[in-house]
Amino acid sequence: MVRAGRGGSGPSRPRRRGQGELEAQVFAALREAGGPVNAAWVQERVGADLAYTTVMTILTRLLAKKAVTRRREGRSFVWMPAADEAGLAALRMRKVLDGEADREAVLASFVTGLSVDDERLLRELLSQADDEPED
């Protein structure tokens, strides 16, 4: 017996996106825009098969993560990236760290897993941060 979706001749389903992939695609579209854009523009760039409500959900999640900003323009919003890719990755890292009870253990595990070059870079960055005047 041949089952549809497992190499049979039945209709194939679209590939399911990986966790975070859709957020990354929406964020990339915003970065490519070069200025404020509405959700319909993002939907058009990310894919016509994507529902407008899905795009709005992703944009709202990115707003909650402080990865994007929005402002009212007429009766709707326009959206802009608030951070670059490095800033977005840093936000994700802070979110993970904030969700853990033993921050010291998480940071210790992270640092011991770094390559020699990354550890050196981290030490340099921490040293630079110590040298900066406080506000």
Automatic annotation (TrEMBL):
Keywords: DNA-binding, Transcription, Transcription regulation. It comes from the Bacteria. One of its GO terms (molecular function) is DNA binding. InterPro entries: BlaI_family, WH-like_DNA-bd_sf, WH_DNA-bd_sf. The keyword Plastid does not apply. GO terms for biological process: negative regulation of DNA-templated transcription. Coiled coil: none annotated. It holds the Pfam family Penicillinase_R. Belongs to the BlaI transcriptional regulatory family. This is Predicted transcriptional regulator.
